[in-house]
Sequence to fold (239 residues):
Amino acid sequence: GTVLWKKPIEQWSTNLWLLKTGPTSLTRRLVADGERIFVTMGVTAPVSMLDAANGAELNVFPETKGAEELLYSDGVLYALVNPAAEWVLKDFAPQQQSDQKRVSDEYEWDQKPRVLMAVDPDKGTILWKLEGLVAPLTPSVDGKRFVYYDGEKIHCLDAKSGTELWAGQEAPRRELYEYNFGPRLLFSGETVLFAGGDGTMRGLDAATGKLLWESPHEKSGYRSPEDLIVSGGLVWNAG
Fold:
């Protein structure tokens, strides 16, 4: 339980968000590989690579400035970057704690282009980039393939080159993506699982994007992202 090290973060999102209203993407700002930690040291800062043992800064990747989500797999760092390089909620102005309806009325996914970026952290080089619409919380990788949802379809890329392998059939979603919500997209072996908030979950063939099955999906927790959990060979959600 001993604290080994601390590092200050000068600028972050306000802590005055209304009760249980987000923003959920802030939970996707830190990943590690055992020896190193990859994190944005500010709400609009580029990704820093830190020594996990002592917190020393090993490198900073300038092209990732504006990174909103991070993934790490098989020696590659993946970042979802806002090309505007500014915090999308910089103008958030809380009024009162009970005024939760403002979140759905005023603050939701802006559906503006983002940049998906793969980085070699050892060399500090960019392996590939792709610009387009990417729904929050949906980037997922299994080492071989990288998937994301653009608000209409699921796309699958070669994780090493960024080449698109397939774009699946339309995957329905709920209408509003407020900042306290997020769809779920993840791998389970050779299956891609998706829950977009419309009351269903789907399994797609990871190699082709073909729809394998569809099942009811209970509404997840109050003001929270969709639940989609794989355990014991089964897919679970908590209604």
